[in-house]
């Protein structure tokens, strides 16, 4: 299978060279942009499979680039930034980024984040948009029937737990912020009601996780949000 095409947006030459060398070693095809305007032009022209995006560009802030790309594309965007504050991560993820990697980073972590994004692409491409069943490891959601199963045993979930699980499933592999989740589930009046969200998430985890103290399906990003992990069936 051909390697996907990546767009690397980074103005720091040292970081840019590190990313380029890493991708070359792994056999990825990619193009490099050093400004925001060039990145937008390249994204429109080449429609990359994944974008690796620095936020601190010389002409356009990376958050604005995310918003522009999201206005027409669902391509995965992995932010690679020196901004380490939770509010920066949340802003980028709320704008539409799929993941956030802080500098300095290891090449192993970069490649791992990239594999997550590519698995999400594969899932999106292989799934029929109108599919009535979601399957992830031993977890199954029957959208038509409104039922949830774990290892073929039906689970009794509350309406809110079901909505949470469906939202995570439809964004499998993507980090969803607290604000995104609460707004989708309860509306803007509940924006960022993290306390309530944690209560419902804890209840859901007790039902779908074999060991809720060591979650396998739902990953917590402390201070940011949650992600439903794509289970590799080969490791089942």
Salient structural properties:
20% strand, Rossmann fold, 236 residues, WalR-like, Arc Repressor Mutant, subunit A, 4-stranded antiparallel sheet, phosphorelay response regulator activity, 12 strands, transcription
Structure description:
With 236 residues, the chain is α/β, with parallel strands linked by helices. The protein has two domains: 5-125, Rossmann fold; 128-235, Winged helix-like DNA-binding domain superfamily/Winged helix DNA-binding domain (Arc Repressor Mutant, subunit A, Orthogonal Bundle), CATH 1.10.10.10. Helices cover 42% and strands 20% of the residues. The chain has eight helices and twelve strands. It has helices spanning 13-25, 36-46, 62-70, 86-95, 107-126, 159-169, 178-186, 194-208; strands at residues 5-9, 29-33, 50-53, 77-81, 99-102, 133-136, 139-142, 147-150, 153-155, 176-177, 218-221, 225-228. It has a five-stranded parallel sheet, with helices on both faces. Strands 6-7-8-9 form a four-stranded antiparallel sheet, with helices on one face. The chain has a three-stranded antiparallel sheet with strand order 10-12-11. A hairpin with a 4-residue loop joins strand 7 (139-142) and strand 8 (147-150). Helix 2 (36-46) packs parallel to helix 3 and helix 6 (159-169) packs across helix 8. The longest helix has 20 residues, at 107-126. The radius of gyration is 18 Å and the shape is globular. The mean pLDDT is 89.
